[in-house]
Design a protein that fits this description.
Blueprint: E1 5-6, H1 16-22, H2 32-49, E2 53-58, H3 61-72, E3 79-83, H4 86-97, E4 102-106, H5 115-124, E5 130-134, E6 136-137, E7 142-143, H6 146-156, E8 159-163, E9 180-184, E10 195-200, H7 216-221, H8 231-242, H9 246-266, E11 270-271, E12 282-286, H10 293-302, E13 305-306, H11 312-317, E14 319-323, H12 330-340
Parallel strand pairs: 1-13, 3-4, 3-5, 5-8, 8-9
Antiparallel strand pairs: 2-10, 6-7, 9-10, 11-12, 12-14
Bound molecules: pyridoxal-5'-phosphate.
Length: 360
């Protein structure tokens, strides 16, 4: 059996060097070698994003977002959380569980935030101290406008917090102007899942009222290693970062994505994110009623192409996703499109607005 073509948002297919790196003998997280490895890994992450500092945690992206919620709980003023998809909804849930004082601006999935909507929220609550939003909304494939959020927050002196988990490594992400931002090893950065990042710009102090594992300040205090770490995961991430050429990578993802979107559109598929707000690395397709996302996903997997469809929020809306988080060649994309042709729509596309599962 040949390895399937992987169009998942993660885990992605890693390079041989990265696979080799994870199998090296584990070293102590207290050793100088690990310290040096961690320093160089952090340096590369900061260089990629323009962040001042980063901490590398053992866990998935949800852990990093919980750490952001923990820091927000130290804020005295109220905040604002934006959502136009599953991951924005999750930020709202993170906040609720932490008992944060926040208002929410939740708009229909697949629609873009207008600056006027956010400004209106700021006007209604002039003492808003922070804003929390998702950069790349992985559920719909929308890329929310980070520059616009920076401008609006700058004007109001509100601290901007960003979930950049699926944007880092796939599109340029500039974190200056962002107070805290999150990322992971297993999506756009080409390594294994298991490491999560919190990027920040000024040194943090520990807080004895936070759970130990969620206290970003403890990481600062103990040189990034307050607890046991995994040299295997960090070595693999480092190997991937060493081979990451950001500009070339962003260009190739953008080009491949534009080609795929055009091909899919010509077959009559409806893509959830409008072109001008779409992230190149995630193409979410709203299937017509005549097709079933689970069956299509199963059939594509059977034929050797893994697409994303098994998440609850995708199945519920009859959506499938083609992701470009790994590395792809034109023959791989051709193979996928050959399979997608089986599902071409026979009728010309009608207005697809009814296909959106709007929030209740
Ligand atoms: C993947 C992802 C997360 C985190 O999910 P985990 O399953 O914990 O890795 C959070 N936000 C976004 C936008 C994501 O794409």
């Amino acid at each position: 059996m040949t390895t399937p073509l992987n169009f998942l948002p993660g885990p992605i297919t890693v390079r041989d060097e990265v696979r080799h790196a994870i199998h090296q003998t584990a070293i102590s997280h207290r050793s100088t070698d690990f310290g040096d490895l961690l320093v160089d890994t952090k340096r590369r992450l900061c260089e990629l994003t323009g962040a001042g500092y980063v901490e590398i945690l053992l866990g998935s992206g949800t852990l990093a977002n919980d750490m952001v919620a923990a820091q927000l709980s130290r804020h005295s003023g109220p905040g604002l959380i934006l959502s136009n998809g599953e991951f924005g909804d999750r930020l709202i849930d993170h906040a609720r569980r932490f008992g944060l004082c926040a208002r929410t601006l939740a708009i229909n999935w697949g629609t873009a935030f207008q600056p006027s909507q956010i400004e209106a929220m700021f006007r209604q609550q002039p003492d808003t101290r922070w804003l929390w939003a998702v950069h790349c909304e992985t559920s719909t494939g929308m890329l929310n406008d980070l520059t616009m959020l920076k401008t609006l927050c700058g004007r109001r002196q509100a601290a901007l917090h960003i979930d950049s988990i699926s944007s880092i490594g796939t599109v340029p992400v500039h974190l200056p102007g962002v107070t805290l931002a999150t990322g992971v090893s297993g999506k756009g950065l080409g390594a294994y899942p298991g490491l999560a990042f919190v990027f920040y710009h000024r040194t943090m102090t520990p807080s004895c009222s936070l759970p130990r594992y969620l206290d970003l300040g403890l990481y600062t205090k103990y040189g990034g290693v307050p607890f046991t770490h995994s040299s295997n995961l960090v070595t693999a991430l480092h190997a991937s970062l060493q081979r990451l050429y950001p500009a070339a990578r962003y260009d190739s993802i953008a080009e491949q994505s534009a080609w795929l979107r055009a091909e899919l559109a010509s077959l009559g598929f409806h893509m959830v994110a409008p072109k001008e707000h779409a992230t190149p690395a995630v193409i979410t397709i709203a299937l017509p009623e005549s097709l079933n996302a689970a069956s299509v996903g199963d059939e594509l997997a059977e034929a050797g192409c893994l697409v994303s469809y098994q998440s609850d929020y995708l199945l519920k809306r009859n959506w499938i996703q083609i992701c470009l988080m790994g590395e792809y060649t034109r023959p791989m994309l051709d193979a996928l499109m050959l399979l997608m042709r089986r599902y071409r729509r026979l009728r010309p596309p009608v207005s697809d607005s009814h296909l959106f599962a709007n929030r209740s």
